[in-house]
Amino acid sequence: MLLAVHVAAAVTGFGAIAATGAFAHEARTSEAPFHSRALARYFRPGHNLAARAIYLVPVAGGGLLALGHGGGVGAAWPWIGLALWVLAVSVATSTLWPAEAELQRLLLQGPEGEAAVLLGPARRLERSAAVCSVLFVAALAVMVVQPR
Q1: Do the Cβ atoms of 4 and 69 come closer than 8 Å?
Q2: Is 53 in contact with 12 (CB distance < 8 Å)?
Q3: CA 134 from chain center: how many Å?
Q4: How far apart are the C-alpha atoms of 108 and 85, rounded to whole Å?
Q5: Closest C-alpha to 14, from 136, 110, 143
Q6: What is the pLDDT of residues 10-20, one digit of tens each?
Q7: How far apart are CA 105 and CA 134, in angstroms?
Q8: Range(s) of the domain holding residue 108
Q9: How many domains does the chain divide into?
């Protein structure tokens, strides 16, 4: 059960971050981003709660280690995975979520200005989502391979 929570939290959280990057790409490349219902719906004001599921990943992982799964806390691979997770959360907290909030605010204001105002936050959001996704894939590889 704890393993299912660990995996579901990782897939949900990092999947939501990847989806946010895809929608940011759409905001950046769309000819009429202020008139897109999909963008307005996805970037409605508020926190992306699905992305915050990444906070459950180390909690469930720590529980698994405490129960002795995967070689316990003495193994190197859980610490490598945790370091990759810390990097991903650092990127999400410092860059991704602030850019997402800025994009939400700009889309809510509407087409008062030109769509070019969306380029900066959309680009930051897209790139930080890509970095988080790469870190997630690396952490996933470490969890599956479990290098000794």
Answers
A1: no
A2: yes
A3: 10
A4: 32
A5: 136
A6: 999 999 999 99
A7: 27
A8: 2-145
A9: 1
